[in-house]
Design goal:
The chain has 3 helices and 6 strands, in the order ββααββαββ. By secondary structure, the chain is of the alpha+beta class.
Length: about 150
């Protein structure tokens, strides 16, 4: 698993597959899951869609909880095909310096989102978004059949 911090630029150019803009409210987590499934179903992903949905849920939840702006803002989710890989990005106006992988105590109710992403994704990273704020992204290698 590769964990990097900063903007990801390596490899071939990504092919945009879809995205959504969400209000920073708890109901947006369910919207993100449904929209991702709907818009990726035609692509017949070879990776675990359920794992992707879990990671999207965690990252959108974190974006809602930790995004900060002085004016109204949104969470942006984008997904791309990069050769045979699926890349999913979640953008929010928060500060990238605050993203960290934690090891919560067994009694803590929160703090496991990035641990799940770390365990499920083939690769993930966090850093400044090119659109301002923060991006946290994950990659699933071999998500698409070669061709």
């Amino acid at each position: 698993m590769t964990r990097t911090y900063g903007t990801f630029h390596d490899g071939p150019a990504p092919e945009p597959l879809g995205g959504m803009t969400l209000y920073p409210v708890p109901e947006s987590v369910g919207h993100a899951r449904r929209w991702f499934r709907k818009f990726t179903d035609p692509h017949q992903l070879a990776c675990s869609v359920d794992d992707c949905l879990l990671m999207i849920s965690e990252l959108v939840t974190n974006a809602i909880l930790y995004g900060k702006a002085d004016e109204p803002w949104h969470v942006r989710v984008r997904w791309y095909r990069v050769s045979e890989a699926l890349r999913v990005e979640v953008h929010n106006p928060g500060c990238p310096a605050h993203i960290r992988l934690r090891t919560p105590e067994a009694t803590e109710a929160h703090g496991r989102g990035l641990l799940l992403v770390d365990g499920l994704a083939d690769e993930w990273w966090a850093g400044p978004s090119q659109q301002g704020g923060t991006v946290v992204a994950f990659v699933m290698h071999r998500a698409f059949e070669p061709g």
